[in-house]
Every structure is written in C-alpha cells, then in structure tokens.
Write a structure and sequence with these properties.
The protein is α+β, with helices and mostly antiparallel strands and 188 residues long. It contains three helices and eleven strands, in the order βββαββββββαββα. Strand 6 and strand 7 form a beta hairpin.
C-alpha cells in the first residue's frame, strides 16, 4: 500500500526514523500527500520530538540546552559534535533530568533539530554517553561499571505532528518492558 509513497523505494512511506537499536515512535505516511506534508513539518522543525534516555554519570544541571554542530568525522566515519565556530550542521538538544540514580541519570530529551545520531553525539560530547550505546561509548568511565544491554537505552517517547485536516495530534509510546525492568532493578 505504501510502496509508491516517498522518494526511496527501500524506505517507502517513512518520514521519521529512529536509529538502529532505539525503540519508540516513527512516522510512516500511507499516501503521497501526507508524506509531503509530514516531511515539510520535520524540515521546518514544527514537530515536537521527545525521547527518554539513561546516561552514564550524574548530570549536575536539572535542565540544559546543548548547541553544538554535528559533522561526520573524517578519521572515524561516525558523527562528532563540534563547537559552533567550527564546520558542521547546527544541532540543538534540550534535556531535563527525570531521576538521578547512582552513577546514572534518566533524562527527557527534546530534539529541536534532527541530525544523524544527534542525541547520542551531544550527550557523549558532554561526557554522558547513553547506556548500551556501542558506537558512542566511552572506553573508560571512572567509578562506573557498564550495564550490559544489547540495545541503546534511548526511546522515542512522544511525538506531536499536524494531521492533514490541520489538527495537532500527540502520540505517546511508553518505555518497553526491557527498559522498565532495568530502571526497576536500579531503583532497588
């Protein structure tokens, strides 16, 4: 039904994706007109995207905004965060602490832009890598024992878009059971 929607037959209908090993909400359009409307909303940054992440380390601020450019590293091939004065694409990530645990912080993350691996890159640049992230992990973390997880503790939790009739709709997807169980074990 969606085979002809969009420009890439391998991603027919997909407007908004999440990284591999990340759970949560994605947007898929069933018709071309909806695809174009939704694509424009993401390009114009009129959508609202909220994630939940568990990071290593204890964030000192309850709320902050990270504004660093993101570019592909020539040496490693992955994305890196750079100061605003350097080359790269503008990226803005806001976070709010949900709960501080021993050597970990559970955060709500709001994306104001949508760059490749943005949340992962920004939090790693601030020295708070996401639990389970094998690509942007730190090789050594002082006084922190890594949590074994075969996925990233990052979840696309809330998404607000404008429907074809002009009304706004908010979608919420609770944390999957596997992530809830980790939090429950850590809180004991």
């Amino acid at each position: 039904e969606i085979a002809e929607v969009g420009v890439d037959p391998l991603r027919a209908g997909f407007v908004h994706l999440v990284d591999k090993d990340v759970s949560g909400l994605m947007v898929v359009a069933k018709i071309a007109r909806a695809f174009e409307s939704l694509k424009r909303q993401f390009q114009d940054r009129t959508t609202y995207k909220e994630y939940i992440a568990l990071v290593y380390g204890v964030l000192s601020k309850d709320h902050d905004v990270i504004e660093m450019k993101i570019a592909r590293s020539k040496a490693r091939g992955r994305m890196v965060a750079r100061p605003v004065s350097q080359e790269g694409k503008e990226a803005k990530t806001e976070y709010e602490v949900i709960e501080r645990l021993k050597n970990l912080t559970l955060v709500k993350v709001i994306l104001h832009t949508g760059r490749t691996h943005q949340i992962r890159v920004h939090l790693r640049a601030m020295n708070y890598p996401i639990v389970g992230d094998k690509l942007y992990k730190k090789s050594h973390m002082k006084n922190i024992r890594p949590i074994e997880l075969d996925r990233i503790f990052l979840h696309s939790y809330k998404l607000r878009i404008r429907l074809m009739d002009g009304t706004e709709k908010t979608f919420v997807e609770p944390l999957p059971n596997e992530l809830q169980l980790i939090l429950k074990r850590l809180s004991v």
